[in-house]
Amino acid sequence: MTDAADLRRRTADLLASHPPATTGRLDFLRARFDAGLAWVHFPAGLGGLDAPRALQSAVDAELAAASAPDNDPGRIGIGLGMAAPTVLRYGTEEQKKRFLRPLWTGEEVWCQLFSEPGAGSDLAALATRAVRDDAGDWVVDGQKVWTSSAHLARWAILVARTDPAVPKHRGLTYFVCDMTDPGVEVRPLRQITGEAEFNEVFLTGVRIPDAHRLGDVGDGWQVARTTLMNERVAIGGARTPREGGMIGVAAAAWRDHPALRTHDLHQRLLRLWVDAEVARLTGARLRQQLSKGQPGPEGSGMKLAFARLAQQISGWEVEFRGEDGLTYDDWTLRRPEGVDFTGREAGYRYLRAKGNSIEGGTSEVLLNIVAERVLGLPPEPRTDKDVAWKDLPR
Prior knowledge:
Largest sheet: 4 strands, mixed
Radius of gyration: 22 Å
Strand content: 5-15%
Distance between the termini: 55 Å
């Protein structure tokens, strides 16, 4: 069985055969994947070694000490956190071999075609249609919205309705969509920050081969739940050091500007610091649970905490900085490759954090998930549960 010592030996062999100082970044990342050191808990031949997930940190520490390049996880987070675990669980062997390596190395960026103008919080109400043609392929028509990185993506994970005559959760199918295909149109959505990291995507007669279907026809909701649970863990359960992330920025501002301090702001900062540390430790426990299997509904609680803390901390920082907290560097429309919460000014963090309680599942929906699936409380009445989607009022 692979242990930490074996992983360190394998990492040393990789560094010896591909010295970071003289090996191109992409060549190094490909070699790392092929050596099974990309995500050690994945199967052998797919970037891993069937090792315990917790041992990844041993590899990462050795590579960081050698100044080895990473795969820019902030840029390809949707692929790493959402597409990869879904492809691994539901993909065919051919799909896994085709998609996972360029996904992990960052050669191919992924996006997520889930939410729609009329189906955001209630994702299962989506209306994008996929109809099978005589050749066995699928023709997709519809509109998606709030699609991060669609302007960069080569591939998308897509949920579409394939049977409108059954209840909404049972008539969905999950696909991999080529974003370069004819009929795919990406339009920027400008946000309150002035940027357009989100997009709306129009699908008009887009042809998807059946070989790019993940899971069985009509089983798309079950496949999508795997994606959503991993998404919430990726957003709310990211590994951070003590006083890392936004609470670190706020604490640094407190230390650097003693003239702005007040007793009330101090008390509020202390409460936020403790809450951030509790969330960090809870995230560590959640990652330990993940080492034993697939993520569960607990990730929804972590994503809830992340959104609340981001908004409260950014609000505290704007208030603490006074007039300087209202400054903003540039309102020019930009289409960034990622979100930088700590590298911009306080005004940006305050505005961008407003979206944290919407993206990745609204806080209201996540509260329902925690109530019903974690605490075991009675579910809310649902009058549309057994009604065919085509008969639902819209």
